[in-house]
Amino acid sequence: MTTSLVDTHAHLDSGQFRDDVDAVVARARENGVGTILTVGCDLPSSHASVELTTRFDNVWASVGIHPHDAATVDDVALAELKVLAARDKVVAIGEIGLDFYRDRSPREAQRQAFRAQIRLARELDKPLIVHDRDAHDEVLAILRAEGASEVGGVMHCFSGDLTMAKECVAMGFFISFAGPLTYPANEALRAVAGGLPIDVMLVETDCPYLSPQPWRGKRCEPAMVRTTAETLATVKGLTLDDVARVTSLNALRLFGIGAVDQSTRIAYTIRNSLYLNITNRCTNHCTFCAKFRDFTVKGHQLCLEREPSAAEVIAAIGDPRRFEEVVFCGYGEPLLRLDLVREVAAWLKGRGMTVRINTDGQANLVHGRNILPELQGLVDVISVSLNAPDAATYQRICQSACGEAGYAAILEFLREAPKYIPSVTATAVTLPGIDIAACRRLAEGLGVEFRERIFNEVG
Ligand code: SF4
Ligand SMILES: [Zn+2]
Ligand SMILES: [Zn+2]
Question: Are 360 and 333 in contact (CB under 8 A)?
Answer without folding.
Answer: yes
